[in-house]
Amino acid sequence: SEQPNNPTPPPIIPTQAPAESRDVVEGTIDPNGVYTYAFTAEAGDVYTITAQATSSYFDPRIAVYLSDTFIADNDDYGTTTGDLQTTDARIYDLLITEGGRYEVDVRGYRDSAGDFTLTVERVATDAPTGLPTERVELGSVTGGETYSLDFDAEAGDWVTISVRGLTRDFDSYVALVNADGTVLLDNDDNGSAFLGALGFYDSQITNYHITTSGTYTIEVTDVGGAGGSFGVTISTLR
Known about the structure:
Elements: E1 21-29, E2 35-41, E3 46-53, E4 60-66, E5 69-74, E6 89-95, E7 100-108, E8 114-124, E9 133-142, E10 147-153, E11 158-165, E12 172-177, E13 183-187, E14 203-209, E15 214-222, E16 227-237
Antiparallel strand pairs: 1-8, 2-7, 3-6, 3-8, 4-5, 4-7, 9-16, 10-15, 11-14, 11-16, 12-13, 12-15
């Protein structure tokens, strides 16, 4: 007998997870308590992690670990963004260099208690994970002055800008500005207690993703107004 004419089924093409994914959870911390959120990430993934207080007088802190190894932390984000209060916490564009199971710990500053919203957002995949190239410049400002430094970047670059005060009590503010004069991202205090060469009141823009090739400007001022000297480091992953 004749076999039925069954067409060959089309090949199954695996779907790739979208570069952007977002998980939002609500949580509560008791005095001296900690809330832990776990997620799995691959090398080259980039995450932004945010803890926003939803109860009065709560000041959240966040820290990220891989197998009990400290990766990054933040207390107060220190950037002029309309969606956060000054005491909310955010780790911006955390670039994953080693795949594995990561944990985000949320605590209250000085063991305070309260309610919060935790947002864990994967903003990109396949980012470079090698060693960055670095450019270091020294600068100074007097009260009310703005220091400007231009640099060239290519589309696809991931740029970290760090400003470390070299004068006692220098409290830096840094802004990344494009050719049109638009502030792309800024930072006052980096808000981390574990950044090694940087102090809590030093400023840092972490892993900003360049989408348009061109010349960019770094602007540095002293929040305190007294002025001082500082070092600027531009780290570029390409």
